[in-house]
Amino acid sequence: MNYVNDRSKSLLFLVGANGSGKTYALNAALNEHRDNGLLITEDGVLVVPRQKNRVSIEYETMYYYYKDEKARGQIREPKEKETITEKAKNVIGYCDSIKKKIQQFKTKSKGQEKVANIMDIFTRCNLNNIEFVFFDEPENYLDEEFLKVIANLFHVLLVNGFVVRSATHNPRLLNLLRVNIEQIILLDNHKMFDVSLDELNKMYFSSTKEIEKVRTLYQMEIDPVIQYKLNMHRHSLAFDSFVRQSLQNEDFYRCLFCKHIFIVEGESDIAALSCIKREFDTSTEIFNPNGKAFIPFFVQLFRCLRKKVTVIIDDDRPNQEEKNLSHPVAITKVLEQQSSNSEITLVIHTPNMEDHYNIDLDTIGRLLGMSNKVRSKKRGWLKYLAASVYFSDEGNRTRIRNHVLGVTKEISFEFT
To answer: pLDDT, tens digit, for every residue of 400-414?
Structure first.
């Protein structure tokens, strides 16, 4: 059986670069469902593996009426009817409502025409025996409004028992449906791979174990906040919440469509890197896991997803060598070991980004009109704004460019 046709998962998205095999996989899956499947192309065109008679709907009685195409042209063409199932009625109702809204437009855009075609497919095909519905990049040509229409169509199909499969290049569509990691199949050169929730838990435990091993070896102090974060996998409610917040959002979904991921500690790093982002390869995304404690886990996850990983962190070692070391330094050492094993590229700011580049937070804060009280209470916000201001200068951009990228390199185009 084609993995795409696993009935235990009602929704699956196929994600991969152009030419990775998404459309091929959909067609192969459809071929296994000649009698109970249909596919809608990126242009909104219906593909069915076998010829099926068109139907019309009698809305008063909710019957399908269809003609025998072989009898077309006869004086009395035999008509057959079939009661529309409840699940089909619900889909028809939604599609009809969208069709009526689109009909109000005198002239239609390509996106509006595509959505109208898709809605028409579900009102002129007999859905009673359809189980699998395949979509090939349904987001093409659609703006935000009509992308939500398609997301709602997916929801209607799912709650009514249909199995939905879709290839996509759109992180926004994944976000609208809050797709979880188990509902995503990644393709690379026609090879499929995925990650289960059980595998996520094992990755988290493995990264935690490595950090604690280093902390214990060097007799480092325990940071209670980091300690709690590292132990979240032991508490199902906390870990499930972490997975939902960290892996079911548009920032993470964007990473799925890129080959190179820059993992950073916080928002100020993103502000700094955004100033030189045009220097990166085009298939690059910056990801903030919201805390240094989570970085080793995300390194494992992204490498499992076949991504190239660069990590940018603060050193966090105190000024006096090997004194009052704690959890943040243990994480630094773990990442240094991974770098030495060529698992990741590691960029370290010593002791932190602000000191490394001599960013004067108080001076920039005063330039921004911040009072002493605001600068003191909103230090994180100040760091974010200061990074944006500081690296708007070409000379400062050159410094971070040389440190992060090592050498100035040509932009390479990788189309996804």
So the answer is: 999 999 843 444 444
